[in-house]
Design goal:
The protein is built from 6 helices and 4 strands, in the order H-E-H-H-E-H-H-E-H-E. The chain has helices spanning 2-7, 23-26, 28-42, 56-59, 61-68, 82-87; strands at 12-17, 47-52, 71-75, 93-96. It is α/β, with parallel strands linked by helices. It has a 4-stranded parallel β-sheet with strand order 2-1-3-4.
Length: 100
């Protein structure tokens, strides 16, 4: 906690999945995306926090902008205006599995 205050880093990346909570746990795509991100980031001393829900506007604002994550991975972004919202916040964001 003290290190986070000094470095302004919490050593965590949020994986935001704007789907109903059960889907990321039952769909192989989400499982492998999470496992891959977690394996890669863990080697760099970061943890991945999985955030799910089908109303993205209510999911991420306080968690991400509140300093609980140093970056965001958005998986399965479809039809929500998350791109514009992510540009408005100061943390880096990556979109994977984008559907049109």
């Amino acid at each position: 906690m003290a290190r986070a205050l000094v470095t302004r880093s919490c050593a965590a990346v949020a994986m935001l999945v704007p789907e109903e909570a059960a889907r990321p746990l039952t769909d192989d795509y989400f499982v492998w995306a999470f496992v891959g991100a977690s394996a890669s980031l863990t080697r760099r001393g970061l943890q991945v926090v999985l955030t799910t829900g089908d109303v993205p506007g209510e999911l991420w604002p306080s968690f991400i902008t509140g300093g609980h994550a140093d970056g965001v991975i958005v998986a399965s972004h479809h039809g929500h205006d998350l791109g514009r919202a992510m540009l408005a916040q100061p943390r880096p964001a990556v979109f994977v599995g984008v559907r049109r």
